[in-house]
UniProtKB/TrEMBL annotation:
The keyword Signal applies. Residues 32-125 form the LCCL domain. Residues 154-184 have a biased composition (Low complexity). SMART domains: LCCL, VWA. Residues 1-20 form the signal peptide. Residues 151-184 are annotated as: Disordered. This is Cochlin. Residues 271-456, 473-642 form the VWFA domain. It is found in: Secreted. Plays a role in the control of cell shape and motility in the trabecular meshwork. InterPro entries: ECM_Assembly_Org (IPR050525), LCCL (IPR004043), LCCL_sf (IPR036609), VWF_A (IPR002035), vWFA_dom_sf (IPR036465). It comes from Cyprinus carpio. One of its GO terms (cellular component) is extracellular region. Pfam families: LCCL (PF03815), VWA (PF00092).
Amino acid sequence: MSRPTLTAVFVAFLLTSSVAKPNAKDKKPKQVVPAIECDMRAGKINLPEFIVKCPAKCRETKEKVYGTGVFASISSICNAAIHNGVITNSGGKVIVMKMGGQVTYKGSFANGVRSLSLPNWRDSFSVSVGKPKKGVIYPSTLIFVPSRPTAENTVSPATEPSSTAAPPTTTHVTTPIATAPPITTSATPRVTVHEVRKAGRSHPYFSSVAHSSYSVPNTSYKWNRMSTGDPTVLDPRPDNTEYEQYGQYPPEPEDHKPLSETGHTKDCKVDIAFLMDGSWSIGKRRFKIQKDFLVDVSQVISVGVAGPMMGIIQYGDDPVTEFSLKQFSSSKDLKPAISKIVQKGGLSNVGKALSYINKNFFSDANGNRGGAPNVAVVLVDGWPTDKVEEASRLARESGINIFFVTIEGPDENEKQNVVETNFVEKAVCRTNGFFSLPITSWFALRKEVQSLVKRVCDTDHLVCSKTCLNANDIAFVIDGSSSVGTGNFRTVLQFVANVTQEFEISDTDTRVGIIQYTYEQRLEFAFGQHNNKADLLNAIKRINYWSGGTSTGAAITYAADQLFSKSKPNKRKIMIVITDGRSYDDVRAPALAVHRKGVIAYSIGIAWAAQDELEYIATDPDREHSFFVDEFDNLYKYVPKIIHNICNEFNSQPRN
């Protein structure tokens, strides 16, 4: 046997060395983080837990957020992360964890983002800093909620899209959402979404969420010029930012619940009351068309306990429940029931019918499920014979989403006969067209079945209820005394504009009135005098400085007489007094009088204002309603604080 050569021995040594001694520092799997846009909602992504990267400047997009700590799935992921202090407005990585729906979501103001309140929602999520735990690798590809039952879109992280880039790949996914958790290379057990859902509120996760506190409000408030170039008033944001870009009504969103091939809606869980017109003006033939329309709707929405439930009220002189929400649990049973409805006759008292459903229809006894949005669809021949504004507002404030289907509405010559002008705009949640469906002819009504069903089943837009931003009468009582001076008075007006622009302004939402005072008082404008944000902010800009003494007590009494005596029922009455000195008259008795009338009073003192008077004026507790700044230029710091307190106080009160 021959001896091996030196070269062969050396090669064998190298081979055995490479096998026997693996590199102890093998590279760990690198976490690839998909990038998303500011408008991406958690509900669009079909994963129980995932990591994403948010871009910069999402706060400026004003994408909606619902909740605090735990957010409704229709919320923007990035703005929820900013609100929760997980990232700044510069963007960053965020870990998102899905969880079950909550009974209520409380809005709050934090880090420059104001979240809104929501009575309930089907799914939730939380956000945390985008630093995965050791050994955890999250999916590098996002799986989106399918637009069709058989497929889901998947998008891998990529650089900026180009016109030549290939379209996103589409894969068929047959496994349920819970089977795609983050990949873990550690033996340490992880908490799964199913565990949290199964345990409910008793799970330890919720104890950490429940004790999270709001972040300190961002005091770097932006002061921008209006398009007119005047530096004293902020550029007014539009009242209906959510829909205005779409014109008449928004197009179907990407995650809209589509109609399936069989004509039935998917995931349409709503409680719907149809208010059918039974007045004599409609006639027998058109009443039959109306019933056929309701039959068509009932078949398309596929009524059932797991989906939509449907009830019908017929109105004329008085409303009558034909059948409640719980009376029929299938479309098959509804069809003959609707066909048997007999016309009652009478006038078209829509306002009375809306009051009726608000007080009587959506109740547990009638089958209201609580977790499903309440929807009222009003069918009107021509126009109502009574006023609808007040009844509609009260119904909306109870959380009822009102749709108006008007058939053969008044033409220009007939408008003089209408009891209440612009009754549809006054009745629906927002004047953007989404909640109104005008039909030119009764014979065209049945063609609109699909359009109406898509809207009432679009639960992402059924968030029509009273909020801290649309349910107020706010009176600013401004000190115009000689010690203020012209320059400082303009600063006060800018502060008033900054506060005002945060609210939804209209005659049916928040209304603003302003009083300026010295020894005397002057009503600059009353509640409802300026019913859109642009007009209101321009009116604030035009207020002229008065100059004189300081009688704050008399000004508070004047506000009670001239403004709050004309407040609408169920409006929250808020008074904000701004003064820079001690009053020449007593403030205690006038302040106590407005407190007893239900006015929530805030006092803001500047420079030489008397602390004891500020506390007398303010509603208890003083620390939440009374503020002091050493100079006028620091007023802007209290804009987010005041908005936060107004909304926090609203959310802590029982709803009507």
